[in-house]
Amino acid sequence: MARHPGIFPTFFMSGFECSTFLWKDRRRRNLVAETGHDRQAMQDYRLLHDLGIAVAREGIPWPLVDRHGQLDFSMLDPFIEAMQASKVVPIWDLCHYGYPDDLDPFSPAFTDRFAAYCRAAAEYVARRLRGPHFFTPINEITFFSFCGGEWGWIAPYRRTREDRMQLRVALCAAAIAGVKSIREHDSTARMVHVDPLVHVVAPRDRPDLIDAAHHETCVDTFLAWDILCGRAHPELGGSPEILDIVGANNYSFGQMEYREHGPHAALEPHDDRIVPLCELLDTAWRRYERPMIISETSGMRHGRAEWLKDVMEEGLAAVARGMDLQGICLFPAVDMPDWHTGEWLHNGIFDLVEDAGCLRRVPDEAYVRELRRWQKELNRVVALDEDPFSDPVELQDVIDAAHRLDKQPDRNWS
To answer: What InterPro entries does the record point to (predicted)?
Structure first.
């Protein structure tokens, strides 16, 4: 029997880019189709199985299954079949930046219809997949609010700070209603609320922006989670049980220099203003004391293996301080295009190579070797058995490794 059983069947997780937003050109994007995941789901899940990964973030495309309130989830069937065949458990993203054309996210109808959709989605997957069941009601509420509320990249195409603030509250209200609706059907369902973990600093020559940068780091970063857990806007019904599991996304561009207009500028790898990831994780842990996962992380191109090494060392340093780290999601499993340019980012475990009209999956061998090294270091499985849930993850192995390896926080993310 595990001394410290984990929530998930494996410590290492992955996932597939599944955005379905209306882009700046007013056309709907479907990243599942753009990466060929819809056509190669069986192969993609077999790749995860063979890597010893039994958890994957996967999207249910709300705007594609909901036509004016009429729901058809049949497009999920090939993915569910692939999950069953490969013994992979999904964390279902119910709104990954996209929502139905006829809805206004600032209206009460948005919340009501989202709650009904969430319940129907939970019922559909529960009939086809054994539990436990995991959901992310609305992915990256904070970043969604920037993209659609202040930068005008995606619908609803707003462009003011006030719109961003209002959109975030509206999305939180919908997420809370969605959690409650799901749990009316399945009281044991677990929720993973995902947002970026960021650090923002003022430009060296703009001391007048220090307060604004500090506010974004220490207040804005956490406001959505604060609402979900009931710390802020308690009238919306948040609680620690609603927040449930904190999913913190971590990328190099999450450490930024403040800009008054538009997205902030990513810090260079050796910038002395970078804060170690351990410190960021520790701040979130102490704020909520809820189970946590690093819900997305990846390096780029030839830096993927080194990035995983850095994230693992920082994560273990946070575990040694007492953080309840339940897993790390290597995201994405297969490559994805830059939203703006369409160029492949080369940030997946597998690159995508065009071959006779098909996107062939080609592993980043150094990245895979680094994953295998850490699986062995943490005494984690390297191949899945018939029932990944038959033996709970022994998180004590991770805790023991954290103390044995005694990794120290490091601000160098090169």
So the answer is: GH (IPR017853)
Give the containing element (helix H, strand E) for 280: helix 277-288
Q: Residue 83 and residue 207: Cα distance in Å, rounded?
A: 52
For residue 335, CA distances in Å to 18, 114, 329, 342, 358 come to: 12, 29, 14, 12, 14
* Type of residue found at 169: V
DSSP-derived secondary structure for 1-12: --SSB-SSS-SE
33-62 pLDDT per residue, tens: 999 999 999 999 999 999 999 999 999 999
CB atoms within 10 A of CB 183: 20
Six-digit token string for 265: 């500028």
Whose tokens are 């809805």? That residue is 103
Is residue 143 within 8 Å of 207, Cβ to Cβ?
A: no
With cut-offs at 50, 70 and 90, classify the pLDDT of residue 413: low
pTM exceeds 0.90 for this model: yes
Phi, psi of 371, rounded to the nearest 5 degrees: -60, -45
144-186 pLDDT, tens digit per residue, is: 999 999 999 999 999 999 999 999 999 999 999 999 999 999 9
As a CATH number, domain 12-405 is 3.20.20.80
Residues 298-348: tens digit of each pLDDT: 999 999 999 999 999 999 999 999 999 999 999 999 999 999 999 999 999
The answer to whether the peptide bond before residue 388 is cis (omega within 30 degrees of 0) is: no
- How far is it, in rounded angstroms, from Cα 239 to Cα 35? 37
Which residue has 């620690």 as its token pair? Answer: 240
H/E run at residue 221: helix 221-228
353 pLDDT band, cuts 50/70/90, is very high
Reduce the DSSP state of residue 19 to 3 states and report it. coil
